[in-house]
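Minutes, project check-in

Agenda point 3 was the complex the collaborators sent over. CS summarized: two entities, 318 residues total, and the question is how they sit relative to each other. Sequences were read into the notes so everyone works from the same version.
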Amino acid sequence: MSKTVITAEPGMPLITITREFDAPRDLVFRAHIDPELLVQWLGPRGLITTIDRYDAHDGGTWRYVQKDADGNEYGFHGVFHGIPSPEAIVQTFEFEGVPGHVMLDTTTLEQRDGRTLMRTVSSFQSVEDRDGMIASGMEHGVRDSGDRLEELLARQLAS
Amino acid sequence: MSKTVITAEPGMPLITITREFDAPRDLVFRAHIDPELLVQWLGPRGLITTIDRYDAHDGGTWRYVQKDADGNEYGFHGVFHGIPSPEAIVQTFEFEGVPGHVMLDTTTLEQRDGRTLMRTVSSFQSVEDRDGMIASGMEHGVRDSGDRLEELLARQLAS
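CS then shared the predicted structure for the full assembly.
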């Protein structure tokens, strides 16, 4: 099984996340822009994701809420920039728990002999913000999301 | 006269622009969010700026067009993230001539004995994008904008 690679160079306001999936690019893309698929893999295991809105077009906005077993809710929202395509999904990302801190995420999907290499670059407003995101324990959620997406893709291909 | 300082560390996907103005913070802030003031200082001298839309609130969008003496038009647009305030104006920025390349700009205004230190940090999707922006000759427009803003503030304070 391919594993998620998270790269965060010291002193740089970027995080790069890559993972290869044994699935065609169009399906991996659909899992990103179809909210019914997205909700099945996004975030750490054990949290329930509810999509409030998800307009995957240029200038469209999205918002979702993740709820843990204790009933705590975590809201996130952002705006798509440009028409989302397998070549690039560009969006801003804000965690409502820390208002004023905005990320700019660029996800590209590259076809490789029927497999797909997903690469997401998150740009931060500062190195401090990037380090804060690392310290928040985002790695756990990113790794779970990658594993859950792999499982979802396998289910979709089997059905 | 205070001058604009542009900082672009090698290998970093950031540009920082600072300038001090002999004007109170509230006026400098107003010059950023009131389109009637903005149009008087934004961009290089010799270009005419026309504002298409400018909704300076959380999630609001803006678009303007700059026209040169030969009639060439350059469109720009973006989205405000968070409620614009003197503490932080956060917005995305796209030049319509190079779609898919998005910047995330954070402007802070700091009061200093009746003067105001303006600081804008532009975050890019990659170091290549940042270097491309430098190579495009943005410096000329940034310096002109700073000088024109200083002139506008002086006019406003004299009237």
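Noted in discussion: The radius of gyration of chain B is 15 Å.
Follow-up: revisit at the next meeting once the mutant set is ready.
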